[in-house]
Amino acid sequence: MRNTLRQHSIAAGIFLVSFIVYARTLAPTITWRHAGADSGDLVTAAFTGGVPHPPGYPLYLLIASMFARLPIGEPAFGVGLFSALSAALAAMFLFYAARAFNVTDASASIAALTLAFSPLLWSQATIAEVNTLTTFFVAALFAVLFSNARHKIELAAFILGLALTHHWTIVLLVPTIAWLLREAEWNRVRIVRAGILSLAPLSLYAILPMRAANQPPINWGNAATWDGFVWLVSATAYRLYLFDLAPAMLIERFAFAVRLLFEQFNVWGVALGLWGMMQMWSEGRVGRQRSIALIAGLALTSTYALIYASRDSYIYLSPTFFIFALWIAYGLGDLLKRGSARAIILAALVLLPGFNGITNWQAMDLSQDRTAFDYARTALTVVPANAVILADGDEHLFALWYYRYVIASDSRVTIVSVELLQFDWYYDQMRTQLPGLPSASRAPDRLNAIIAASRAQQRAVYATAPMNALSAYVLTPQKNLYVLERAR
User: What is the DSSP annotation of 181-222?
Assistant: First the structure.
């Protein structure tokens, strides 16, 4: 009982220390740093009852909607606290997962704090984004899978089901889950229970069409229709990223991933992790079975991150780094068994979490960052009350959405995404916001129709940047926007 109480106290300490650091370095509003441009889209959708970009994130929306209404700072700050909370819980659950390997409390806590203050997890914990919730589910799954919990199968099934209502990449861990549960006490009743517990959370996807039916300002795909729902949840718009990477880029991306690994844990952390991986494999049948499961999870998650052709795909390495942190705990635990315990613990405390915390603080600290917010505020302030702003790129578009629909909700400015005009559902939404738009099937024709209709209604038209789609017009800089003067 005393040992259990001590472990829970240590776990709570890891959570509190991590959360306090994250909250202290949290962005006060939306941000463009740490690959956080999507924060404007996510917070706006959560706050206004909308639906964000694919796959829609129903569970995240449900929770973020509550955090966005906390009486603390801006809605984006509240949602950022959700990211910090998820990351701190992930670090805490790593402690529990590592303790299941029968390593010491010191080894498990050092590994947990090392992960907590690693650049990738820390960077995502300070912005209003979805990624730390994904890491939390990974951590919770491994803590359950390596535990001796009586209802391990049911707990793992329920966590998996919840994770599937957040991000589909969790399926990459299904082989690992199946391997670790293959020798559990299965029977017909438990199979039925596990099936129900994993499928029941999927009912949360009903949130998306219900929100879409209210025609919110942010309504990706219009999930109120069946086709729109499938398009959103299956992330059809992003499938091209899976097949769009040139083979020559794979070597470059692999080298980048290795460099990121060293950035997370430093040379000594990587050495400890590799040592832990080798020692776990050598620890008889149980060690090899655990090693196979972890290697499979690492291989699948890292491969996905390498071949996915988006600019921020490195974030999908989070589960990979979590698995490696487990090996760090195992490696440190093995060394402690070999003697010199006091010296090794002291060195690890200073060189791993302490070093990460000190060296990464300045780069992670977003507490004064208001660049994205100030951009949107300036843009919305300089334009006439009923202006139309043509936005190109996620950074400008999502920042403008946030200021227009969350901060200045009484504004009559219309924000148009030039990129989204390729989708029928989006042009239909524009036809609702700008009455009189004709039917058009091509994005260039739709853009020209919006410009013509806006001018016919005596609405000034602005652009966030010069773009090829506007090459037929004269653009004049005005503050941080460009006003469309006339056709060339």
Answer: HTTS---HHHHHHHHHHHHGGGGGGGHHHHHHHT--S-BGGG
Beta-carbon count within 10 A of 213 CB: 13
Characterise 479 by phi-psi region: left (phi > 0), alpha (psi -120 to 50), beta (else): left
Inter-residue contact 115 to 57 (CB < 8 Å): no
Which residues face 477 on adjacent strands? 482
Closest CA to 228 of 416, 377, 425: 425
Q: How far apart are CA 216 and CA 24, in angstroms?
A: 33
DSSP 403: I
Give residue for tokens 């990706």: 220
Contact 415, 397 (CB under 8 A): yes
Angle subtended at Cα 278 by Cα 273 and Cα 282, rounded to the nearest 5 degrees = 145
Distances (CA, A) of 34 to 39, 68, 123: 11, 20, 6
437 DSSP assignment? P
Lowest-pLDDT range of 151-160, 298-307, 341-350, 445-454: 341-350
β-strands 388-391, 414-417: how paired?
A: parallel
321-346 pLDDT, tens digit per residue, is: 999 999 999 998 888 777 655 666 65
CB-based contacts of 99: which residues, under 8 Å, 6+ apart?
7, 105, 108
Beta carbons of 421 and 409 less than 8 angstroms apart: no
Range 30-33, long-range pairs (CB < 8 A, 24+ positions): 30/76, 30/128, 30/372, 30/373, 30/398, 30/399, 30/402, 31/127, 31/128, 31/366, 31/369, 31/371, 31/372, 32/371, 32/372, 32/395, 32/399, 33/127, 33/366, 33/369, 33/371
Q: Interhelix angle for 318-337 vs 284-307, to 10°? A: 150
The C-alpha atoms of residue 51 and residue 215 are separated, in whole angstroms, by 10
Q: What is the mean pLDDT of the chain?
A: 93
CB 292 within 8 A of CB 179: yes
Closest CA to 76 of 357, 443, 341, 376: 376
